[in-house]
Amino acid sequence: MNLNTDFVDKLRNSGLRPTKQRLKICEILFDNDKTFHFSVKDLSKIISQKLGEKISLATVYNTVHAFEKKGYLKEISINSNQTYFDTNTSSHHHFFDEKEKKLIDLKNEDVDPINIKKTIPGKKIKSIEVLVKLDPDNY
Amino acid sequence: MNLNTDFVDKLRNSGLRPTKQRLKICEILFDNDKTFHFSVKDLSKIISQKLGEKISLATVYNTVHAFEKKGYLKEISINSNQTYFDTNTSSHHHFFDEKEKKLIDLKNEDVDPINIKKTIPGKKIKSIEVLVKLDPDNY
DNA sequence: CAATAGTTTAGAATGATTATAAACTAATAA
DNA sequence: TTATTAGTTTATAATCATTCTAAACTATTG
Question: A70-86 pLDDT, tens per residue?
Answer without folding.
Answer: 999 999 999 999 999 99
